[in-house]
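> call design_seq(struct)
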């Protein structure tokens, strides 16, 4: 791997580039600068919506593109122009809603770069918190609607992602089986208590293929870093697939290289090893 010339670095955010304080370390920002000076494209590739991107990203000169909503959307950061979309079909959205109504599951949706949640659930989280989710992150990034399922159907032609959250890990296989019966979707996950539903071909890897073609970079010139299941396809796509030290053993098994944890600047160390 050391002899590969890397011209694009795709980076997940949470659990990867961001530390527990949701910040990118000064060392990592400096490594971005050094890599970009060499002509390397640093690309954010996250499950977050565009609206939920950390403000710090906009202080880093030279960042060109952000892949958001697990590959449903690519934005040119300088102009905030959308250059790629890959959404669920209206039929798939209707099928998902039919399967989820009445389950009692926590359901969110991403529309045009914004994340939405049922108002009752958000109010409950404000007063009672959550045993399995980051309360402050949810409160700062989610927009309330009166009925999440009605809202999803009203916007069925614009759905980037539908996120399903469950409290008890022992129920994972039950919910996976329920969702696995829906055609025309992709199913992935960004943390242990959720499933994320995208379109039939939606993934970070598919979005990267579009972006690489646009800027003239091959998969042999790509490094990708991530920690969760929604990063797996882009890690497999990349010539240098880097998995974080804080990832699961399942994820570590698919990478070419395991770097340090997100708390110990694993992304910076990988860039220094393979790019600089």
């Amino acid at each position: 791997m050391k002899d590969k010339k890397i011209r694009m670095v795709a980076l997940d955010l949470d659990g990867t580039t961001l530390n527990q304080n949701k910040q990118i370390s000064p060392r990592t920002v400096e490594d971005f600068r050094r890599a970009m000076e060499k002509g390397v494209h640093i690309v954010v590739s996250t499950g977050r919506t565009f609206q939920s991107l950390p403000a710090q990203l906009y202080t880093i000169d030279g960042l060109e593109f952000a892949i958001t909503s697990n590959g449903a959307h690519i934005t040119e950061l300088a102009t905030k122009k959308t250059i790629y979309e890959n959404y669920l079909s209206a039929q798939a959205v209707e099928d998902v809603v039919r399967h989820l109504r009445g389950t009692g599951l926590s359901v969110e949706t991403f529309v045009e770069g914004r994340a939405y949640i049922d108002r009752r659930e958000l109010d409950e989280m404000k007063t009672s918190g959550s045993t399995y989710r980051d309360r402050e992150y949810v409160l700062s990034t989610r927009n309330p609607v009166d009925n999440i399922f009605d809202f999803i159907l009203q916007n069925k032609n614009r759905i980037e992602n539908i996120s399903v959250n469950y409290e008890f890990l022992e129920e994972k296989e039950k919910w996976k089986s329920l969702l696995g019966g829906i055609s025309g979707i992709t199913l992935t996950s960004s943390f242990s208590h959720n499933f994320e539903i995208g379109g039939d071909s939606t993934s970070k890897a598919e979005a990267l293929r579009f972006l690489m073609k646009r800027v003239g970079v091959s998969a042999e010139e790509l490094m990708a870093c991530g920690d969760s299941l929604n990063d797996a396809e882009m890690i497999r796509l990349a010539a240098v697939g880097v998995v974080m030290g804080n990832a699961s053993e399942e994820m570590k098994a698919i990478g070419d290289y395991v770097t340090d944890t997100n708390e110990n600047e694993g992304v910076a160390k990988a860039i220094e090893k393979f790019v600089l």
